[in-house]
Description:
By secondary structure, the protein is α/β, with parallel strands linked by helices.
Amino acid sequence: MACILIVDDHPLIRQGLAGVLMEEFPQGQVVEASDAPEAMRAVGSQTLDLVLLDLTLPGRNGLDLLKEIKALRPRLPVLILSMHSEEQFATRALRSGAAGYLNKNSAPQVLMQAIQRAMAGGKVISPEVAERLAAELTVDTSRPLHEQLSDREHDIFLRIGSGQSVSEIAENLNLSVKTVSTYRTRILNKMGKQNNSELMQYAIRNHLVD
Length: 210
């Protein structure tokens, strides 16, 4: 009997996913969490077979939560289900221990196939992501600039690239403005950019923001 945790801050998304899951696993159990603390309580107290994790959560980077889940339950498969494209987060999620990465626009049958594969111990990886991961196994000095950022820097870079101000990012991530400004400086230095406008142009040019 499958027990699946859905971690998403949108009630309608959770309800829709729960409906699809109960059709596939009528004898199963669906647990819901709207944020990171609720998710970690469920992971710590329930016997789960799979976690469906959104990357955009209130006050918490989903990749950070993924690492925390894997640290507590290394063998628990975590399937990322996100609105963000693969180019933005897939390789980072897989490197952090995710069993796979799907866009929320995926058809229900594709989602169920991915869930079955992940619960069986397999990986859910598109050919494009597989190629990207294989390329990272070799020393490649031509790696894109944004791939040289840490996970937190990458998250803040994408927020800057989508037009958020330092104060908005600080509020959304529950960080101080000073901390976000420090990350911004590191990002500019690593990417050789001068200001937010250049970061935004880079993000748009590389199709990293919607």
